[in-house]
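Q: Give me the 3D complex with SN-glycerol-1-phosphate.
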Amino acid sequence: MGPIEQGLVERRRAVGTLWAVLLDPDSLPPEELAQTALQVEEAGADVLLVGGSSATPGVFEAAMKAIRERSSLPVLLFPGSYHQVVEGAHGILFTTLLSGRNPQYLAEEQVRGAERVIRHGIEPLPTAYLLIESGAVTTVQKVSGTQPLPRDDRDLLRRHVLAARMMGMRWVYLEAGSGALSPVPVEMVRDAVALEGLQVIVGGGLRSPEVIAERAACRPAMIVTGNVLEKRRDAEFLKAFAQAIHHP
Ligand code: 1GP
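A: Here is the predicted complex, encoded as structure tokens.
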């Protein structure tokens, strides 16, 4: 485990659950992303994720530069493809889309991106990425061409988490998809945390402090919010998110 991951694990011990804010370089210009990074840092966010679906050259580089200039939070890449592995990130959620059966996202993107990770001095955090059905077809489903795990099949989720652990992953991301109608069920968060041995990340469709607090009460390692803060990020709203995650 490298120093960035170690730092996150220690911070997690201190705050219970980390609040990660996903910044999407496809949604906002670099200056606005940097401003958002500052605002969420002031409100109590613990880590920034940078990710999206675009592969336009230069977009991720500019976003990363602006964010790093303004924020002192750890910044992890959460890439949709190997093109998004850019210089400047502290770490990367080095994911494999384990819920899917598409070789491109199980292994091909990883093979293409691995040398870039080393070249840019980015610390990889081995992460199993599990899509969970969320009421409608999500972008990540469309882009990856994979089916999510059914939201009522807790046993299947359990088997995926166990396999991830045995494959040597240290993190598992339970993902409903950005803008999901229904977030990951509370029972699934509880089951994944109870299996132990993996740091559990939960994200997708978390738009209110109440919905977040229910999941934070299961004490996953990290809760990710994205979309909602592109529309609203006044200090009071942001503080309510920090409170829901750190003190559910
Ligand atoms: C997507 O889980 C993240 O990968 C964030 O989702 O944009 O719905 O918060 P939202």
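A quick observation: The longest strand covers residues 123-131.
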